[in-house]
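Two proteins follow. First one:
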Amino acid sequence: MVSVYVLIRADGDRVWETVTGVKEIDGVTRAEVVTGPYDVIMTAELPSVEGLRRLMKSVHDVDGVERTETCIGI
């Protein structure tokens, strides 16, 4: 199992819509609005690193997502 942590910068007017959309993605275990340089922090569990591309495409397809930084825990 691979743990993925994604730091998301969102359009300022769409932060709550963004976190709601991210929570609906398959594999996402948690997503929260936070303060600081990022607007949303998301965690996901994947069976393997190979699923990361699909996960990140889904994240970037969510309305309001402007930029992400991804950290993988192995």
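Second one, unrelated to the first:
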Amino acid sequence: MRKCGDLIKVLHVHDNYGSTDQHNLPGMGMIKWWDVMAALREINFDGVFSLELNFPNGFAEPIMEQYCRLAFNMANEIANGVKA
């Protein structure tokens, strides 16, 4: 990321465990998001942080709404550098 700098305009964001393209929520895999976000801050990234997630099938709408909120909150926490 640091080498590409201002050429980065859109990030396809999801997480995985390194074996397949799993599309897990950010933080639900092995990507070191705090390091990724530090690099993005260094290059002054101001592009699109686009979530591409795998949604579970067959759940009722209220559960899916909660899942979407969780996805947003996790990505927002990472994007804003909040760390417990």
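SUMMARY FIELD: DSSP finds two helices and two strands in the chain. Residues 61-79 form the longest helix (19 residues).
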